[in-house]
């Protein structure tokens, strides 16, 4: 990993921890962006952590770009020394895979896809060496995921699966982005899963939909009362496959503002995880059983 | 007291100077595309510079006033009429209760700003009245202005009409427009020939040009430095591991058509960016119509900061002029 510093115009400094994705790069980016936040540098207006990079927006009338860059660079050692441990939460997100609404949408945009003859899931299963969509879905939800970035549009989480690199699922984005994606679609692009927080354009493959709102400016759900955006970087997610019946039941609760997602407080230790991935994941998922 | 919208125009939205602080959650700063024009419009009618006004794209709305107010229209040259009587741009004029504000066809520029004394007083969302339709935030119910809307106004500090900003203190892009770019971000992904070609080529504004971003076409496809794509980036050479996007950053999906992200930018994604438009030229982009010829010009940080300071001086000159 070699850190790269660059300017984004005269108001941003962009720091890339690594050009490839890994949890190590994510942790380094998170702790360094935290160090920048804690340093309370005058002139900083926004700090945006991403998967393996982060960005600082500043007011060049308050602090010159060169001085700003130097201050950020000086904090790199703190990121290296930081403990790779997080007090976080694991959340169970219900997913209705192969639902009728993303199916209708993916058929509508078929000419923009690599494989117009099948569905996004059939394609993803085939190129990842699975013999059926069912087996691919199993691989998608069996092990938990880590929220490594929130952004694109309002509150959309990017998720990275907690498995060895050779078990990571990878799919390309659509050849040309769609102009429409149903709200709360569970999507996939590169090595990242995502949940489309709102309806709109998108280029990720579509696998299913969750009935659970994750962004609501009206903050009607109990778990969105503190803030309108549900996810934050460092959250851990376990997808739970559901059928139409359960989807409708949860949707009923959502409409009555009574839906309560399953959430448990957990610790995540990167070194423990690297030493024993199945064991660490099993423990994380057990926490949900008592939630 | 309020305004009644008879016709909304093409895409009219309530905007102020935006909501900083939530980009890390994918909620962009938003606010007026041409911030200079909004500030000046507000000054002309005696409002604080950051008061909320209307951002009008290409085609003006038709609005009935329910109380007397001072109004100023700045930015694009979109001639205003009160009950049919033409009004000067960049000048404060009176509209009496019951009168109608309408507009002629657009003459130049792309976005006009309407400031009304007292400012628009819709409920702020995350500290701003700016409309962000994707996130249903700000404006009226998080959307653009519609026919039938009743827009509330704040308390006005009454000043005399007639204040005017002279031509030399207005700012609109030249034709062809020049946009200054500070190379950076993933600039190293381009071959030297592509780096040069981007600045040599003649571009025009494409039809896909809105508050999120402006697309340009007409230049040669950009070639990338060959590499094995990093894990998680995606197969296309223009892909990166999804990262943050800067305001004004220039992404070129597939190396084909550059897109400059603007006030309602997506906060991140998986396309390489070759640098960013300098902050001093962001306002100009909001005034570009589709098909306008554009040249990108490469600058260094010193020139970017000098341009930024020139813009501040111009704003200070307007303040001094208006007393």
UniProtKB/TrEMBL annotation, chain B:
It holds the Pfam family CT_A_B. Residues 24-314 form the Carboxyltransferase domain. SUPFAM superfamilies: Cyclophilin-like. It comes from the Bacteria. Keywords: ATP-binding, Hydrolase, Nucleotide-binding. InterPro entries: CT_A_B, Cyclophilin-like_dom_sf, PxpC. This is KipI antagonist. It comes from Sulfitobacter dubius.
């Amino acid at each position: 990993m070699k850190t790269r510093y660059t300017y984004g115009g005269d108001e941003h400094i962009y720091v890339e921890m690594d050009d490839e994705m890994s949890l190590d790069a994510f942790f380094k980016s998170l702790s360094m962006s935290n160090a920048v936040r804690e340093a309370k540098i005058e002139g900083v207006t926004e700090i945006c952590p991403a998967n393996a990079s982060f960005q600082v927006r500043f007011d060049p009338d308050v602090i010159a770009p060169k001085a700003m860059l130097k201050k950020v660079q000086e904090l790199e050692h703190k990121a290296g020394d930081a403990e790779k441990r997080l007090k976080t939460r694991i959340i169970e997100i219900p997913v209705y895979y192969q639902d009728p609404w993303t199916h209708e949408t993916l058929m509508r945009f078929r000419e923009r896809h690599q494989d117009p003859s099948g569905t996004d899931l059939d394609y993803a299963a085939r190129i990842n060496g699975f013999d059926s969509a069912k087996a691919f879905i199993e691989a998608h939800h069996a092990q938990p995921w880590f929220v490594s970035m929130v952004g694109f549009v309002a509150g959309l989480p990017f998720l990275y699966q907690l498995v060895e690199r050779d078990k990571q699922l990878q799919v390309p984005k659509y050849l040309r982005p769609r102009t429409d994606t149903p709200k709360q679609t569970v999507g996939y692009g590169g090595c990242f899963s995502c949940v489309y927080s709102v309806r709109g354009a998108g280029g990720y493959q579509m696998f299913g939909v969750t009935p659970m709102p994750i962004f609501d400016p009206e903050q009607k759900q109990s778990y969105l009362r503190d803030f309108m955006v549900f996810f934050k970087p460092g959250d851990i997610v376990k997808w739970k496959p559901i059928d139409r019946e359960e989807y409708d039941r949860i949707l009923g609760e959502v409409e009555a503002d009574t839906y309560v997602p399953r959430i448990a407080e957990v610790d995540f230790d990167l070194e423990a995880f690297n030493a024993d991935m199945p064991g660490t994941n099993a423990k994380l998922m057990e926490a949900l059983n008592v939630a | 007291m309020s305004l009644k919208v008879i016709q909304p125009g093409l895409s009219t939205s309530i905007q102020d100077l935006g909501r900083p602080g939530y980009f890390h959650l994918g909620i962009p700063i938003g606010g007026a595309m041409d911030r200079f024009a909004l500030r000046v419009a507000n000054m002309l009618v005696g409002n604080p510079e950051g008061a909320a006004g209307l951002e009008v794209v290409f085609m003006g709305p038709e609005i009935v006033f329910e109380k007397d107010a001072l109004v100023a229209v700045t930015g694009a040259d979109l001639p205003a009429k009160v009950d049919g009587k033409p009004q000067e741009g960049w000048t404060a004029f009176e509209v009496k209760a019951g009168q109608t504000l309408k507009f002629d066809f657009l003459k130049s520029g792309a976005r006009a700003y309407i400031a009304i004394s007292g400012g628009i007083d819709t409920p702020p969302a995350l500290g701003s009245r700016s409309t962000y339709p994707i996130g249903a935030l700000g404006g009226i119910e998080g959307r653009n202005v519609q026919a039938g809307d009743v827009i509330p106004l704040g308390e006005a500090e009454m000043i005399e009409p007639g204040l005017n900003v002279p031509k030399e203190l207005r700012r609109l892009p030249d034709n062809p427009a020049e946009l200054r770019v500070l190379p950076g971000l993933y600039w190293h992904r381009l071959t030297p020939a592509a780096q040069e070609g981007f600045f040599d080529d003649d571009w025009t504004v494409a039809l896909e040009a809105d508050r999120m971003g402006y697309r340009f076409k007409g230049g040669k496809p950009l070639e990338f430095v060959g590499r094995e794509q990093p894990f998680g980036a995606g197969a296309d050479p223009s892909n990166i591991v999804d990262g943050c996007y800067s305001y004004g950053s220039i992404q070129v999906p597939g190396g084909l058509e550059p897109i400059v992200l603007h006030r309602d930018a997506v906060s991140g994604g998986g396309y390489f960016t070759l640098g960013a438009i300098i902050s001093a030229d962001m306002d100009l982009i909001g005034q570009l119509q589709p098909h306008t010829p554009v040249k990108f010009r490469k600058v260094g940080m010193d020139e970017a900061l000098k341009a930024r300071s020139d813009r501040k001086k111009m704003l200070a000159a307007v303040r001094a002029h208006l007393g």
